[in-house]
Amino acid sequence: MPSIMVDLSDRRLYLMEGGRxxxxxxxxxxxxxxxxxxxxxxxxxxxxxPYSRPGGRLTPYGTMWMGLSRRGYGIHGTNRxxxxxxxxxxxxxxxxxxxxEDLARRVPIGxxxxxxx
Length: 117
What we know:
Belongs to the YkuD family. This is L,D-transpeptidase-like protein. GO terms for molecular function: glycosyltransferase activity; peptidoglycan L,D-transpeptidase activity. This protein is 9% helix and 41% strand. The protein starts with a strand and ends with a strand. It has one helix and ten strands, in the order βββββββββαβ. The protein is globular and about 45 Å long. By secondary structure, the protein is mainly β. The chain has a single domain, classed as Beta Barrel (L,D-transpeptidase catalytic domain-like), CATH 2.40.440.
């Protein structure tokens, strides 16, 4: 089974299999006052979003949300691609929409997510 490792200092998410990195993605992380929590979690749900809501408003979670076992936190896309690589979120892990969609296809619910400094 694959696993995910998020390295906050590198601002990268690594898809792992058998102890090897098989994919690497750039991410946006939490601001200093709303830091991304470190620890070991699991993906508990995956929710695809249409790119825009009724009325044409863009979703804040981009095209995909993958909720973590830490309530209120997740890995998701963004409608602000310039935020990737920055400290901009309220603690969630932001990805380019194409990247989060690719990741969501590759990992099942229950996948372990390790977030480290």
